[in-house]
Amino acid sequence: MSKLLLELKDLTIFYKTLIGWVKVVESVNLSVDKGEIVGVVGESGSGKSTLGNAIARLLPPNSKIQGDIMLDNVNLAKLKESQLQKYRGTSVFMIFQNPLNSLNPVKKVGPQLLEAAKVRYNREGKKVEEKELVEETLKVLKELRLPDPQSIMERYPHQLSGGQVQRVVIGMALLLKPKLLIADEPTSALDVTVQAQVVKLFRQLNEELGTSIIFITHDISLAYVLSNRIVVMYAGRIMEDGDVDEVLRKPLHPYTQGLVSSIPKGNKSQNRLNAIPGNPPSFFVLPGGCKFNPRCNKVMEVCKQKEPSLVEKEGRRVRCWLYE
Ligand SMILES: Nc1ncnc2c1ncn2[C@@H]1O[C@H](COP(=O)(O)OP(=O)(O)O)[C@@H](O)[C@H]1O
Ligand code: SF4
Ligand SMILES: [Mg+2]
C-alpha cells in the first residue's frame, strides 16, 4: 500500500483584485504521507492560509487554481462543487484561521457536533444511539477544557467567545477523524495550557488513527512541538522543506535561519518573527530574482537576477542560490 496521501503538483493560486489577477501561491510541489504531520510556517501574508484553503477546495469565489491536488489518487482540483461534498469532512477537514467560518451560524453548536460524530459512524458503517453520540461529544469538549460543555452545546456560534469557537471546531475535527486534517493557526485564541492540550489531542489523533495533519502556523516553535516535517513558505513559495529536527538544528535557507534564530530562548513562549529586518514583499510588486533577496544577509548578484529553484540538498529541499 502506498504511503502517499496527498500530492500537490505545481499548485498555483490567484486572487482577483481591483487591478486584476494576482498570483499568491506559485507552483507548489508537496507531498504528505499517511500519518505524517507537516508544519507549514512563514510570516503573515506568505500564502499559508491560501494554500490550506485550496487543498480543502474552500477558497473564496474571487480565486482560481492551476495544478493538481491528488488526495488518495483523486484530483480534488478537477472536481466540481457537487462532487467535492463526498470528500469534505471525512477525507479532508479544514479548521479555518477564522474558525467561525467552519460553523453554521444559524444552527446550535450541539447538533453540528453530533452531526460530525454521526458522519464518522456512517463512514465506518456503524449504527449508534443518539445517547452515545452525545456522550462522546461531551467527552471531547471536556478534553478541550471547555467549562460547562452542556451549555456550550445549547448555544449558537455567535454566543461563544473566540477561544470557545476555536475549541468547538477542533472538537469537530476530533469527532470527524478525517484522513487529512488541515489546521490553520488552530490555537491562536487559546492560552498556553489549552494550546498544549490541543497539541496533545492532535498527536493522539495522529497516533491512534494515522490521521495526517497539515499544521499551519506563523510560530515555528509551535510547529516544532507537533510536526515531523517543516515546510517554510515565503512570498507564496516553498523555501525549505525537511525533517523538523534537522531544519531546526541546521536551517539551510537564510530565511529559515532568521525564523529559527527568532525563537526565544528560555521559557518565554512569545514569538518574535520580526527578528528578520524588513517586511515580506507585496504580491503586486514582487522583487525580481529570489523573492527574499531584499531582506537577505547573504544576497549575491545572481539572487537579484534569477529566481533559484527548489533543489534537493542534504535530504531536504531548499530554494537558494547558495545551494545550486
Ligand atoms: N480573498 C482574498 N482576495 C484577495 N487577496 C487575498 C485574499 N485572501 C488573501 N489574500 C492575499 O493573499 C496573500 C496571502 O494571504 P494568506 O494566504 O492569508 O497568507 P498567510 O496565511 O500566510 O498569512 C496576502 O497578500 C493576502 O492579502
Ligand atoms: S537566493 Fe540569494 S537572496 Fe535568496 S535566500 Fe539565497 S542567498 Fe539569499
Ligand atoms: Mg493565514
Please state the structural category. Answer: alpha/beta
Give a list of the ligands: adenosine-5'-diphosphate, iron/sulfur cluster, magnesium ion
Q: Could you say what the CATH architecture is?
A: 3-Layer(aba) Sandwich
Mean pLDDT: 94
How many structurally independent domains? 1
How is the largest sheet built, in terms of strand order? 6-7-8-3-9-10-12-11
Keywords: ATP-binding, Cell inner membrane, Cell membrane, Membrane, Nucleotide-binding, Translocase, Transport
Main location: membrane
GO molecular function: ATP binding; ATP hydrolysis activity
Pfam family, one: oligo_HPY
Helix and strand layout, with pairings?
Layout: E1 4-17, E2 20-33, E3 37-41, H1 48-55, E4 63-71, E5 74-75, H2 81-84, E6 92-95, H3 109-123, H4 130-143, H5 149-153, H6 162-176, E7 180-184, H7 192-209, E8 212-217, H8 220-226, E9 229-234, E10 237-243, H9 244-249, H10 254-261, H11 301-305, E11 311-313, E12 316-318
Parallel strand pairs: 3-8, 3-9, 6-7, 7-8
Antiparallel strand pairs: 1-2, 1-4, 4-5, 9-10, 10-12, 11-12
Helix pairs in contact: 3-4, 3-6, 4-6
The structure holds adenosine-5'-diphosphate, iron/sulfur cluster and magnesium ion.
